[in-house]
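Risk register update: the risk of archive-format incompatibility is retired. Evidence:
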Amino acid sequence: MRLLPRAPMLLALATILLAGSGANAAEFSAAQRAEIVSILREALKTDPSILRDAVAALQSDDGERERAAARAALAATRDILVTPDDPVAGNPAGKVTIVEFFDVRCPYCLKLEPEMAAFLARDGDVRLVYKDLPILGAASVLGSKALIAAQKQNAYEKMRDIVMRNPSDISRASIEAAARKLGLDAQRLLADMDNPTVQARIDANLRLAHQLNIQGTPAMVVGDDVLPGAVSAAELARVVAQTRAARR
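Archived output:
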């Protein structure tokens, strides 16, 4: 009668086989791999949780590798992550900085707005830096240009609020109307939108997002972490507190 290896060994073997590549998997011959599969099949009849635990271990390992890669990318881009031209909300002198990459037409970015507002209202020591990242088409690019042009008239956040709440109606005509509603110089804003420096700033944000492996919006950088998706105010508070504690 063949004795089965103990559960930890089975878990390790299952994880290696699930990975399907790498140095550990390559160390086994075809015959050895077939023997391992046979052992695992027999063990799974008795304890199916081995496969579940192996998948969980593999996902955890992948997650740790992704976090390590994100931190390395952040270290490499730390000097260009925030520039003097970036619009700022919250406390401009806040000791913790959140860098938010967003698209004006992204519904998840809009969903994040009340959570972010609630968080900033509770924590007065956080600086929020906006990074326009128009990845959802020409209308998104037009919207981002409108925001950056409005910044030249100290109305970035006001224009941002109007444009993001009307994502299906972004055109030069609607932007001109929004500028007039806000009391801005509409003709100057439209002209500024076409200034090459505006497109250059968008291009720089796109390059930075690529370097950080940001693949969608919203995405936030807090300390040494990149947070994808619309997170809750509670999650923001946790990460900010963690960042603050690490700097003491």
